[in-house]
Amino acid sequence: MRKSGYLIIEILISIVIFMTVVVAIFSNIATVMVRTKRSGLTFEAGLLLQEEIEATYNIFLRDWTVYPDGEYYPAINTSLGEWTLLDGIENNVRTRYSRKVEIETVCRRPQSHPDSGKIVDCIAGEVDLNSKLIRGVVEWVEKGENKKVETEILLVRTNI
Amino acid sequence: MNEKGLTIVEMIIGMTISVIILMISTSMMVNIFYKDTKSKQSEILSQVKNDLQSEITVGVRWAETLSFSDNELVVDNSIYRLNDGVIEKNGEAITPSSVYIEEFEIDDFSTTLQQKSLRVNIAMRHRDFSSVSDSLEVVVSQRKMEIEEQ
Lengths: 160, 150
Hints:
The complex is a heterodimer of chains A (160) and B (150). With 160 residues, chain A is α+β, with helices and mostly antiparallel strands. Chain A has one helix at 8-62, and strands spanning 70-77, 82-87, 90-93, 97-108, 119-120, 126-142, 145-156. Chain A has one domain. Chain A contains 1 helix and 7 strands. In chain A, strands 1, 2, 3, 4, 5, 6 and 7 form a 7-stranded antiparallel β-sheet that branches. Chain A is elongated and about 100 Å long. Chain B has a domain at 45-141. By secondary structure, chain B is α+β, with helices and mostly antiparallel strands. The longest helix of chain B is centred in the N-terminal third of the chain and has 54 residues, at 8-61. Chain B has one helix at 8-61, and strands at residues 66-69, 72-75, 78-83, 86-89, 92-93, 99-108, 117-126, 133-141. Chain A binds chain B through residues 1, 3-5, 11, 15, 18, 22, 25-26, 29, 32-33, 36, 39-40, 43, 47, 50-51, 54-55, 57-59, 61-63, 76, 81-83, 158-160, and chain B through 2, 4, 6, 17, 21, 25, 28-29, 32, 35-36, 39, 42-43, 46, 49-50, 53, 57, 108-112, 114-115, 117, 119, 136-141, 143-144, 147-148, 150.
């Protein structure tokens, strides 16, 4: 005679199906959360990159000849209440990031050349004292993977 | 004789298993919905940060005239003001009512008098979920527009 009710196997199958659905939903949400966090970290790195480029731009409006080619990072001169550049790379920015601003001399084709003014390697051109290449770099490690955002800005001096 | 129905022991075991499953599944579902809701609120704050960052950057960078005071930034003809937890541009809200702006602070670190370099700090939280909070620190320098004669 067949009894009414469920077999243990039926209960187990229903539990497995239920758990599969729950895990599927949960992993979906977890993926969205991880992506949100990742894009948040990249956005934060972008803000730090913007800060170093914007600060360097403002510094060079006044101090064109003060900083030779090299690696720097922006800081606030607390006694003057203004931006300044310090030598080297800044580490542990907001516990996670490292950043630097690279200042490079710009060389151009000489006036006698058909491509006069074109930016080239310094072996093939002349140093342009009125141009500087500023490269901003922000790096961080995310789950063991190295991440980086960078940008360049060409500054041209007009108030000689 | 094979009697139909359940014994009290079978019933108790069945109820115990049902309650355990119900408790686990309920806590999991509550956890999922809580994280989902929190994730959505964080997403709103991220969107506000994105919008404010581009609005302030573009505005200040290409401004001809620039001034600021407590909770207020004036960029040419646009006045950004913190009013009752909302940032307004010329009196119109540019941040959603679901986001409470706690701080709108501006510092000037310019090296020249002509072109300003501002650091704008904005702290915010969700109005309904105060544990969901975020902040934005954006630095932007005014560009030099005029080209001087050599």
